[in-house]
Design a protein that fits this description.
By secondary structure, the protein is mainly α. Helix content is 58%, strand content 0%.
């Protein structure tokens, strides 16, 4: 795929949704971090159902640290791998309190040093909280990048590196959101909804759906 076509793809996605945002519900950077950690192998809708009462009752790092693993698990038991996630959330929360005064650090290495936080989670936090032009590659973005020909790669890191390299600077800040929402609602895994796709004529996927 050439440079002009990539630019046109992002231009159309931007025109359709000028101000994209995460579908995870949060009120503070700390809450976003927790929500993203919980979202691994889970849907945003499922995470939101669990975090609404959690964040209402225990909105701060201090409150969740005091809550403890067992009680936290009770709030998030509808989410996959909830016991492991409860352990990680309490552990990362204690580290934030001990080393960062309870605040989310603006530093990739510090973020990735937290339990349950990998490169993708760090990228999401750096992008949404700190406005960095990072691109977090999840299953939706991996699929869209490969299927459309936008940034094909065999693994998530190779796709991320290509997206960072090939995405025009003007679109990098919101690229992650445009691609994830496109993959979630249009370029679906089993049956992509090609007839209503805004980039249909630019997409290089050969097996487009007709209906």
């Amino acid at each position: 795929m050439n440079k002009a076509k990539r630019a046109q793809i992002f231009a159309r996605l931007a025109a359709a949704d000028p101000h994209p945002a995460t579908e995870l519900e949060y009120r503070t950077p700390y809450q976003l971090l927790v929500a993203v950690v919980l979202s691994a192998q889970a849907t945003d809708k499922g995470v939101n159902r669990a975090t609404r009462p959690l964040f209402n009752d225990h909105p701060t790092a201090t409150a969740i640290a005091a809550l403890g693993e067992e009680k936290l698990a009770g709030y998030i038991q509808t989410i996959g791998l909830y016991k492991t996630k409860a352990k990680n959330v309490v552990a990362l929360t204690k580290i934030l309190l001990e080393r960062h005064a309870g605040t989310v650090p603006h530093d990739r290495a510090a973020l990735e040093a937290l339990p349950g936080v990998g490169r993708k989670t760090a990228n999401v936090v750096l992008n949404i909280v700190f406005g960095e032009p990072t691109i977090a590659v999840d299953t939706h973005i991996f699929r869209v990048a490969n299927r459309t020909g936008l940034a094909p790669g065999k693994d998530v890191r190779s796709v991320e590196d290509k997206l960072v390299k090939f995405t025009p600077d003007a679109y990098k800040l919101h690229a992650h959101h445009w691609l994830i929402l496109h993959g979630r609602y249009v370029c679906k895994a089993r049956t992509p909804e090609c007839p209503r796709c805004p980039i249909l004529d630019l997409c290089e996927y050969r097996r487009k759906t007709a209906t």
